[in-house]
Amino acid sequence: TSLGGVACRPDAWDEAGERRAELRDASDFLSLDPGTDEAMRTAVDEARAAKDSLGGAFEVRATGLPPGLGSCASGPERLTARIGGGLFSIPAIKGVEFGIGFEVAERRGSDVHDAIVPGEPPEPFARATNRAGGLEGGMSTGEPIVVRAAMKPIPSIRIGMPTVDLHSGEAVRATYQRSDVTSVPACSVVGEAMVAMVLAEAFLEKYGGDSMDQVAAALEHHRAEIAGLGRPASADETS
């Protein structure tokens, strides 16, 4: 979504539509906004000429998830913490945010929380917005999970970082070993895999069985329960 200060359009995901995979694969930077590729390439070339490196940010979205993955019972069980921990386990990741992220600190509650509204059958409920990024109370809401991670620039820069010689105690520059100008596009692939692993683990915890047939049956049973929540109560149930 950004590289070296060059940012993709905020609506790039929506505009890409069914062409997302095509656009991503066609971009050297795995971007959904073709208009920024040239500016990103220029930023990389300028940083290379300056013997420096660049950081940036990437976004991972997971769609089609059922509500209720994760738990609100304890911190380690919260899906928010598990996804965040997984992304923070990737070297050089310095920030993670869900949905509108740090914007929540600047808004009022009525402009942050996602209202529950009637859904389209067979789903009884939906969310009017997805500012929380598909997670609430440590659990999935059924809306797409939207998470972004910020990666710092690679520290082994060609110009050499200032440091201290351990033998003489004098100020020197670190010896250059090797360095790419940026690894943000590659890191986005790692981040996508990490989010997938965390979600697969949470999915199997909820619907796990000894075979895929058992997993599928548990999922369908849960979906039927959810669909039943939105139906009017029968006379027998109300009595």
Keywords:
single chain; alpha+beta; five-stranded antiparallel beta sheet; elongated
Helix and strand run = EEHHHEHEEEEEEEEHHH
Total count of strands: 11
Q: Give the strand order of the largest sheet, numbering strands 1, 2, ... along the chain.
A: 2-1-3-9-4
Arithmetic mean pLDDT: 93
* Largest sheet: number of strands, sense, barrel closure: 5 strands, antiparallel
Radius of gyration over all CA atoms, rounded: 22 Å
User: What's the tally of helices?
Assistant: 7
Low-pLDDT residue spans: none
Helicity range: 25-40%
Shape: elongated
Query: What structural class should be given to the helix and strand makeup?
Result: alpha+beta
Distance from N terminus to C terminus (CA atoms, Å) equals: 55 Å
- Strand coverage percent: 15-25%
Description:
The structure is a single chain. The chain is α+β, with helices and mostly antiparallel strands and 239 residues long. Helices cover 34% and strands 17% of the residues. It has helices spanning 12-16, 20-26, 37-49, 79-88, 184-207, 212-229, 235-238, and strands spanning 2-3, 6-7, 56-62, 93-98, 116-118, 125-127, 135-136, 139-140, 145-151, 162-164, 171-173. A five-stranded antiparallel sheet has the order 2-1-3-9-4. Strands 5-6 form a two-stranded antiparallel sheet. Helix 4 (79-88) packs antiparallel against helix 5 (184-207). The mean pLDDT is 93.
Summarize the structure.
The chain has 239 residues and is an alpha+beta fold. The chain has helices spanning 12-16, 20-26, 37-49, 79-88, 184-207, 212-229, 235-238; strands at 2-3, 6-7, 56-62, 93-98, 116-118, 125-127, 135-136, 139-140, 145-151, 162-164, 171-173. It has seven helices and eleven strands.
